[in-house]
Amino acid sequence: MVGYSNIFDSDPLPQHGFLYSNGAMTGLGTLPGFDGSYANAINGSGQVTGSLAIRIFPEHAFLDTNGIMTDLGTVSGAPFSEANAINNSGQVVGILYTGPIHGFLFSNGTMTDLGMLLPVGFSSSANSINDSGQVVGGMGPAFGPEHAFLYNSGVMTDLGTLPGYLESVASAINNMGQVVGTSGRLSGSLPNGPTHAFIYSNGLMVDLNSLIDPSLNITLTGASAINNGGQILASGSGNSYLLTPVPEPSASLLSAGGLIALAAVRCWRK
């Protein structure tokens, strides 16, 4: 796994990304011109991505392969970039600070500004990428409702929201193209309010709360990750939850989305 470590009693406050493997933590260091780094994601080959920093502020996205760190730079005149995720092909996604924030995709040595959908908004953030190169995140005006999006082969698609809600953001996508995230009143010009976790599959956004046993008496307010087995990391009611698909009789299937009821739930106290 990867992360970063701070030195709190110095000025400026340097932080260095680390890789933890086989019981040992290894510092990733930084590159000339920067005094720190953040490690945000790792793929199956051990490639690490994150951000090079000056003081505590992300400046340039990086890619570390076999201990060799590469500055991914920026594009579109953006002064800053920050990497959020990497797939097993070494494609990286994150955000560019272009004034408004734009999502980016780094692939085959080239960084591409994902832009946004007009008139929906003029900012976007790329949060996750699967091994097919499909990217998900959020987009919207700076001070207004945000919508989850799916970016595939150069085309950005608005995923909409759960019924009755104005906002959504996608947190993760697996290799089956299933997307999870949060829908509700999130930020911007709208006051924060109730949110629900969602899964998007085969063109349909479904409230995850409708797929779990109501006798559990919990409300899933957000979902942050999904793996290729369909297991989902969600949060709500003061806990974190692992939701595991459980095959049941055909009556439990949602034919429109091909989703299986999430009958098994484990939780950890935060």
Give a written overview of the molecule.
- This protein has 270 residues and is mainly beta.
- It has no helices and 23 strands.
- 0% of the residues lie in helices and 53% in strands.
- The protein has a four-stranded antiparallel beta sheet with strand order 4-5-6-7, with no helix packed on it. A four-stranded antiparallel beta sheet has the order 8-9-10-11, with no helix packed on it. It has a four-stranded antiparallel beta sheet with strand order 12-13-14-15, with no helix packed on it.
- It starts with a strand and ends with a strand.
Tally of helical runs:
0
Strand order of the largest sheet: 4-5-6-7
Structural class by helix and strand composition: mainly beta
Q: Give me the strand/helix succession.
A: EEEEEEEEEEEEEEEEEEEEEEE
| Major β-sheet profile | 4 strands, antiparallel
How much β-strand is present in the residues? over 45%
Residue stretches low in confidence (pLDDT < 50, at least 5 long) are 249-258
Q: Residue share in helices?
A: under 10%
DSSP strand tally: 23
C-alpha Rg (nearest Å): 19 Å
| Shape summary | globular
List its traits.
0% helix, 4-stranded antiparallel sheet, mainly beta, 270 residues, globular
Give a quick precis of the structure.
With 270 residues, the protein is mainly beta.
